[in-house]
Amino acid sequence: MRSVRTVSVYVEDDVGLAFDHGTAAWVFDLDLWGVCGQGPDEPSALADLRRRVPNDVDLAVAERIEGDEQAFLRDHQPSTAQERQITMAILAETRPQTLHLVGSNSDRLLDWDDASRVLPSFARWRTLRQIAWHIADTESRYYLPMVGLGYRERAANLLTELRDSFAHVRKTLASMPKDMLREVDGQTWTSAKVLRRLAWHERGELAVMRSLHDRGTRTLSRTDGTLCT
């Protein structure tokens, strides 16, 4: 008989992530930390999450909230040492991949824009270079400041910024209190929320970057007959 475990799902509606006024479905289990399904509504977000978790997992909605950048009751629980360690491990795995993707490709490919790509109205990061800047901007100039952990200015060079931002996040998380709570401009941020968002964000953007890279390579190769990597 197949052994199945039930995993609690936390659904937020009317949020600005992958969609304008879309839905995101999160899980908090340590082995699925930072996993999120998204869609224009709850059924599609849950279906997307279903594709991202193992087959031996059953999903059960435990909490629903509505509105952009709110926090689940689960987010209000103090973050754990394990959640912090897993977040750091995920960032340590993803940042070298981002650095390699940016550092190993031509300016032409880094700045190629897929005109057919549909983004939510607030998103301005269309190219590989812009997405890479967006990763650092989000962690160093959005997530951490929103929970009251300071704002760091951009470095002039993108590769330097990716390295410096990673070091800043790592240092900040090492001393972050486990029970931070900050409400500002109608948003609610906590220690646990910052950790789960950090664990999710770059990993998701990397998947987008790889897909964009492959499409750009094929398109530019057809245009001039040469590879652009």
Can you tag this structure with a few keywords?
Four Helix Bundle (Hemerythrin (Met), subunit A), 4-stranded mixed beta sheet, alpha+beta, single chain, DinB/YfiT-like, two-stranded antiparallel sheet, 229 residues, DinB-like domain-containing protein, DinB-like, 2 domains
3D structure, described in words:
The chain has two domains: 5-68; 76-224, Up-down Bundle (Four Helix Bundle (Hemerythrin (Met), subunit A)), CATH 1.20.120.450. The chain has helices at 42-52, 81-103, 107-110, 128-146, 158-175, 191-224, and strands at 5-15, 22-27, 36-39, 57-66, 181-184, 187-190. The radius of gyration is 18 Å and the shape is globular. Helix 4 (128-146) packs parallel to helix 5 (158-175). The termini are far apart. A four-stranded mixed beta sheet has the order 3-2-1-4. The chain has a two-stranded antiparallel ribbon with strand order 5-6. It is α+β, with helices and mostly antiparallel strands and 229 residues long. Helix content is 48%, strand content 17%.
Strand fraction equals: 15-25%
CATH topology of the largest domain: Four Helix Bundle (Hemerythrin (Met), subunit A)
Number of domains: 2
Q: List how many beta strands DSSP finds.
A: 6
Morphology call: globular
Give the SSE string.
EEEHEHHHHEEH
**Arrangement of strands in the largest sheet:** 3-2-1-4
Unreliable spans are none
Domain DinB-like: 91-203
Protein name: DinB-like domain-containing protein
InterPro entries: DinB-like, DinB/YfiT-like
Pfam families: DinB_2
